Write a sequence for this structure.
């Protein structure tokens, strides 16, 4: 594929006390073990709930308290059914494409897609926006499917670089074209609320492939999302 740009307004990436702050990605597949789906979702909720209760107990929390009693199960359900739902390929959005009847061959840009993900190094939220674009080949998609693809890959423990690549690769696959761009601008709670505690720092990642490697096309995309072309 193509270049991957990353710049951050903080010194997030020079803060290398430990691997967790480096946020390096290793290949575009989320690392899963071979038995990742041996348990069904209900069984996972049961087990995670059990283990999360242990964590709370070790922290000294009284699980018989009314307010805390339901937390292990709430967290387990949130992990399996919501914020990590995109680990399971069964939940991948089914994207139907249509004939590009009007022979539209210019950019299609879906911008300001709300992005919510989770940092895999700290299990802390990542939130921001994604902008995606493609140039139709023979096929076009319903626009909301672009949002759904972003959402599916965001709902995993992630590093932003890998998330960007996974979205780009899936767009290329479903649209049958190399010509895609993905731009993500997101804030990481692991940078804001712990560690260096830099509020307001955000991380930008971008993937340009096919015709988006061409300066004019890239410029048109960046202009549309309100970003200047890098010098
Ligand atoms: Zn992190």
């Amino acid at each position: 594929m193509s270049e991957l740009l990353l710049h951050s307004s903080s010194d997030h990436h020079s803060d290398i006390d430990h691997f967790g702050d480096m946020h390096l990605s290793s290949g575009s597949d989320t690392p899963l073990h071979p038995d990742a789906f041996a348990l069904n979702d209900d069984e996972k909720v049961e087990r995670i709930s059990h283990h999360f209760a242990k964590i709370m107990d070790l922290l000294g929390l009284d699980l018989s308290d009314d307010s805390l009693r339901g937390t292990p199960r709430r967290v387990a359900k949130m992990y399996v059914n919501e914020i990590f739902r995109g680990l399971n390929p069964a939940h991948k959005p089914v994207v139907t494409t249509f004939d590009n009847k009007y022979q539209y061959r210019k950019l299609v840009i879906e911008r300001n897609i709300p992005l919510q993900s989770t940092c895999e190094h700290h299990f802390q939220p990542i939130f921001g926006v994604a902008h995606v674009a493609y140039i139709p080949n023979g096929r076009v998609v319903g626009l909301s499917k672009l949002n759904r693809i972003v959402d599916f890959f965001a709902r995993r423990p992630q590093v932003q670089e890998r998330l960007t690549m996974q979205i780009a690769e899936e767009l290329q696959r479903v649209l049958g074209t190399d010509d895609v761009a993905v731009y993500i601008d997101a804030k990481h709670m692991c940078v804001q609320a712990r560690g260096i505690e830099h509020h307001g720092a955000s991380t930008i990642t971008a993937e340009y492939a096919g015709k988006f490697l061409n300066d004019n096309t890239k410029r048109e995309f960046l202009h549309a999302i309100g970003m200047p072309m890098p010098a």
In short: DSSP finds seven helices and eight strands in the chain. The radius of gyration is 20 Å. The helical segments are 41-58, 66-69, 71-83, 143-154, 160-175, 189-192, 215-224.
